[in-house]
Design a protein that fits this description.
The complex is a heterotrimer.
Chain A: H1 2-14, H2 16-33, H3 35-38, H4 72-107, H5 111-124, H6 128-139, H7 143-170, H8 173-180, H9 185-221, H10 233-240, H11 248-276, H12 278-284
Chain B: H1 2-23, H2 30-35, H3 41-51, H4 57-69, H5 83-118, H6 123-135, H7 140-154, H8 176-183, H9 186-223, H10 226-233, H11 238-256, H12 258-276, H13 281-290, H14 294-322
Helix pairs in contact in B: 1-14, 5-6, 5-9, 5-12, 6-9, 7-9, 7-12, 8-9, 9-11, 9-12, 12-13, 12-14, 13-14
Chain C: E1 15-26, E2 29-41, E3 46-50, H1 57-65, E4 73-82, E5 85-86, H2 92-99, E6 104-107, H3 111-114, H4 121-132, H5 147-163, H6 169-174, H7 182-194, E7 200-204, H8 212-229, E8 232-237, H9 240-246, E9 249-254, E10 257-263, H10 264-269, H11 274-281, H12 318-322, E11 328-331, E12 334-336
Parallel strand pairs in C: 3-8, 3-9, 6-7, 7-8
Antiparallel strand pairs in C: 1-2, 1-4, 4-5, 9-10, 10-12, 11-12
The chains are: A mainly alpha, B mainly alpha, C alpha/beta.
Amino acid sequence: MFETIKFLIKKLAQDRTAAIGVFLILSLILIAIFAPILATHPADITEFHPPERLQGPSSEHYFGTDRMGSDIYSRLLYGARITIAIALIAISVSVVIGVPIGLLAGYYRNWVSDALMRVSDIFLAVPQIILAIAIAQTLGPSIQNVILALSATYWPFWTRLVYAETRSALNEPYVEASIALGASPSRVMILHVLPNISSSIIVRTTIGMGGTILTAAALGFLGLGPPPPSPEWGRTIAESREFLPEAWWYAAAPGIAIFLVVMGFNLLGDGLRDILDPRTRRSKGG
Amino acid sequence: MFNRLIWFFPTVFGLLLLVFTISHIIPADPVAFLAGDNATNEQIADLRAQYGFDRPLYIQFINYVMGTFQGDLGISLYTQRPISDDLLGRLPATLELTFVSVLISAAIGVPLGVIAAVYRNSVADHILRLITVSGLAIASFWLAILFQLFFAMELQWTPLQGRIDGWGPDHITGFFLLDSLLVGDWESFGSAFSHLVLPVATLAFPAMATIMRFTRAGVLDAINSNYVLYEQAMGFPERIIIWKYILRNALIGTVTQIGLIFGLLLAGTVVVEAVFDWPGLGLYAVQSIMNSDYNAIMGFTLITGTMFILINLLVDVLQGVMDPRSEL
Amino acid sequence: MILELEGVKVDNKLLSVKGLEVGFDTEQGLAKVLDKVNFEIMPGEIVGLVGESGCGKTTLARAILGVLPKNSARISSGTINFDNNDLLKLSSKDLADNIRGKLITFIPQDPLTSFNPVFTIGAQMMDLMKWKSPDSVKGKYFTRYKKARQVTDKKRIIDLLHTVQLPDPEGILRKYPHEVSGGQRQRLMIAMALLPEPRMIIADEPTTALDVTIQAQILKLLRGVAVDRGVSVLFTTHDLGAAYEICDRITVMYAGQEVETAISKDFFSQPRHPYTRKLLQSLPNNSKNLKGIPGQIPALINPPSGCRFHPRCDEAKSECAKLRPEVTWPKKGHMLRCFNSNSVSAKETKNVVR
């Protein structure tokens, strides 16, 4: 297991763009963890200073101040926590729900599997954000509801992916052999199928983080995310609109932050895919 | 292929069920909300009966489904008008925006993808790959705001928002570009065109990036194939090999992704219409969110979901037609 | 039509490759795939290029055509004279327009993947005719395909489809490549190779991908049409039996070096090079003397010096590692590159018969 990790790290280091991705993500994680230390005005998450509103970038306020006079830089750092939390939890939950369902549906071929796949198909028939809007709006704006909405609309993706891969893994001779030898279903699924599909899951999880962050930001932009005074990035951009074009920093900072974070995950995901799935290596550089 | 067609109906039905379920997990009581703070319990009960919220759930569902088949999606809690009317009125705006965006993103994305593949690892390829990755990492709503900031506010090259100045051309199809051409209303055409520029640019950017990526991969696959080797060995002109033989093969893969791209676009219209004040379905959804108009949101979800299912179906059929190897 | 070679410069050679040196850039370094190879074909001759996988026969074929991978192939020296023109000096556009598909055509190894899967067979053949028909005229900016010419070309196609013994030519033209059988596809390939009325066909292992039962038919067909039209054929293969079926003359290659050339009869009855002898001995028909060849084909990044076969050769002498043997002509028409005595042992007179 450690061998594979070491191998992975070595390969990643060789791929320049993937290395950039890793750098960006690590930065994000560090910023999120050390936000209270890195922030210049940590109290601005909840405090307001109206007299100082809408000031441009300065040595005191690196990214300027927002409409309530709060330091945008500090709020941005805390916003990183929200972004990571939402994306990480939403993806984890959807994977934890979706993967087992997919495994089971792929292993047992009966009407239950068919029904589960139909349900997944219905969810997948609608773009994620549209369903997420419906759910989030129904439940009300809060961070938990955003996570809920995202998880509820993402699990079918994993289910369908894992279902297809389980089906094809089951056709492998060695799996058939172990079933014939009397291996129990859970043994087959965990010991044989799961390791094979794990690389696929890892790659898509990473790429999925990027998409989830964008969707979460869109929900925040639409007012469906954590309510004020939350420093969530999408909401900050929405707040900034009425003060454009003068207070350009107000919109630029959170937008660039989102861009860098999503870019990081995308680059890392691409890099992982090149390593773990040799078939696509050809089209990328070879 | 028949299988695919038949699955359309259960899928839409499932969507109906899903939408209905979501709309009924409301913790709050929409009727009480509507009635206002000062309403008495009696008034609330009356209102509830009026909207049919007092009947058992399954009856409500059946009514809902029946209504849907007759084109009745309920009454908007906010505008008090039939939701289907509202949606229908706004459909052309969204369709026009989406359609033009697909055209532009394909017209730019496909050739660029071919070039990136043919000149693999050159400077041009790296730049194009950079664009691709950026295109998929930028938040649409932020890009929209940036475009507005730069092109509309600073440079004043395009209007800030909206779909057209004035009333627009006479209504024939509802597509302003088409209608103004048909009646020769050049002023409207120009206005509609200039208003389309920024929204289309915003929507098309991620779509173009995706198309470019898939076309590049498809062309690279084809370049390494035996039939290209044969065509080269037999001395076919290089440009014919690329733009006729390879492209046709690569396009099959790209067309498959149109469903994916359409999904991207649909998702994008919500925020893009919000930023540009574009009077389409997306803006309707956003406004309904603001107004807590649950019915309207459900109607919107249903309609866009169905459109998406339909498009995917068409793509499946199209793919079957384009690739002679597939079993129709 | 078998021509006697004198080993003396004969000016009417159709194809003359001299001293061709080709390397491929790989991650581990430059693979020296062809080591100053000489090779000749006379007009109307069918020459077999025989050797194990990796001996360079496909590379040589591709080098003649000019379709080596652009990014990794390096031609460091040599000439490829076709009809007294050095192909290596022509621009790639010139090669593509005037030589490939017109004077030299190609029959690939796998006809299934060599057809474009999304166009009908007829469309692909007509396209070939558009650019390569004997009547074709290349316009300055674009080439028009006049109706009248389309009609004559179509007739040419149908006639050739009859010649290659394909039933229902019209019907086949409407089909897609995956809808016809492997044998039919290869007949189509033969037809396409003949349509432009070329002087030479390069057939790269054309029967390897076919069923054994069909191989003989295709080989007979290929020989028949080539001889009828006086078209030369460069036929690469690792299958000596196939070479026996259709070749007038056979050249053996080992690890990028050509080692022996002889007319078919002499090749099978009096092989002189140790490698050739080993090849013949390892054929399953020689059940009494069945031997493999010990050792492996060398990696070409750092190939053996001198004669590249010397590490595996029973009769290797000290000179073999120092220098590559020169071209010698132990008999009229029989070329050998070996330091060993050129006597033929009587034991080797067993013929190979399928």
